Amino acid sequence: MRVLGIETSCDETAAAVVTEAGDVLSDVVRSQVALHAPYGGVVPEVAARDHARAIVPVIEEALRKAGLTAQDLDGVAVTVRPGLLGALLVGLSTAKGLAWAAGKPLVGVDHLVGHLMAVFLRREGVEARAPEFPFVALLVSGGHTALYRVDGPALGQIRELGATRDDAAGEAFDKVAKLLGLGYPGGPVVDRLAALGDASRAAEALPKPMARRDSLEFSFSGIKTAVARHVAQRAAQQGGPLEGQALHDLCAAFQGAVVDTLVRKTVRAARQEGVTRVVLGGGVAANRGLRARMTEECGRRGIEVFIPPFASCTDNAAMIAYAGALRLAAGERDDLDLAPATRTSLPRVTRKGGGAR
Amino acid sequence: MKILALSTSTPRGSVALLDVEHSDHGKHGERVLASMSYDDLHGHAERIISAIEETLAAAGATRADIQALACDIGPGSFTGVRVAVATVKGIALALATPAVGVISLEAMAAAAFASAAAPGDLVVPVIDAKKGELFLAVYDAPHAPPRVAPRHLARDEVPAALAALAEGARVVVVGVVAEELPALRPHLAQGPGLGLPDASWIGRLAAERLARGPSSREDLDAAAIEPLYVRAPDAKPAQPGYAPPR
Fold it and tell me: How many beta carbons lie within 10 A of that of residue A88, not counting itself?
């Protein structure tokens, strides 16, 4: 079975052809990151306009690289949620037109389910280790931060264990980078500068985000505020922005605090669920500090860690095609009146906003 | 040749299937075989495919009969416009048919010249642009470039702008939103295809365009169809060191 996946939920226009076994026949991602950089974040209308411009060339490239035409496909999978409505609508409308005209079945895919299944993708020339079910997954990106117990690929087999109450971890990286004048996106540059710094020299300025031992929920807005306060204080004392070693130290302390929280809670979740496999997913899984700490802490406790290659962690359509192929293989398909939604279809346990930290 | 035409730029969604006959003398005649419409600005993505199926069924046609595609490219609702544009792009990917984008306001003007206006009249199609503005254009003849290309204008500036252009010509305003502007109401013409852009007029203009043939390699390629937004996205570049609330 060869399934075309289409992804336009945020700021990547992506298309891929994948089999139900997870073999990636093609995987095309066109990032809009440079387009949004001047705004310091994703502008929904700017994103939707670029998707409309890029969608056909991206799909054509994915089909060409897979050596297929639309008629050769066994189905079309498309991200329907969660995401920016205007952006989702471009991919969904194109997918519907294509599926209808080619007479192929259409399946909608929850973007988060796609991320959770990305670990099963098999890319040519890349050694792939796939976990058995069940596993605990940390999904961490610019839009999402949550822990799941995953017993299988279907919606009913995935349970949220805890999620962020406010900002996503990647969002915190972006906001802190903006505060420090480091540009957008913030993750890669903070990660790079953190490697040059000493966290202990700035750690006292920052709180441990949602450190309560028994909670699997996250909160990253407090640490961002603490960084802002620290930057303002330094500016008042020294009459200038944070630079050089002091900047590196603060990046190291910030990244260290975020990574520490993510790793501790993931380990706690695995223990609580009695699961010995942990999977990382989402764009922040590219963070070197997180990969290293997670591997080290899990290794000490006999927990196996599965970190997909970078191309499978960031937003892509291969994971959507694969999750869709699993649905199609199970005999499912959606009607052509399928509607997009801003929220995930996975049941959520974490309430956004208040409550005891 | 059968053309499938879509319009989703306003709360009115519409689909039409047209049959175009070309004669040897470069003339062509087109006939609307079937059309349907609905009113649901936020439901275009849900309804457009079933509207297409309904239209084809009414004409006794199937998707295999479609030889060309046409879509309304706006101006209008940004999100709405993209539904028809993306749907047409998807269909063209599968059928490898030529596709034509048609300006919403031009389709309304063409409908006006076919019924309520004569050459020499100033036809002014208007579409609600929200934020206290209208999308409008000015045409003084059918099959001719606009006197004023599609643009957005504050509602209270529209009457003076039109008065300055008229120079004694009869002004014919079309578009339901004009009912909300007392100064425009005396000029307002009503009739089929005049209140909001309609797929049958999108299809007729596409037929003219197709009859002329491609003018370049990219022309008539669905991938190259761009919505005509007229208004820029509502976003300001961030100032360094300042984090706006999200």
Answer: 28
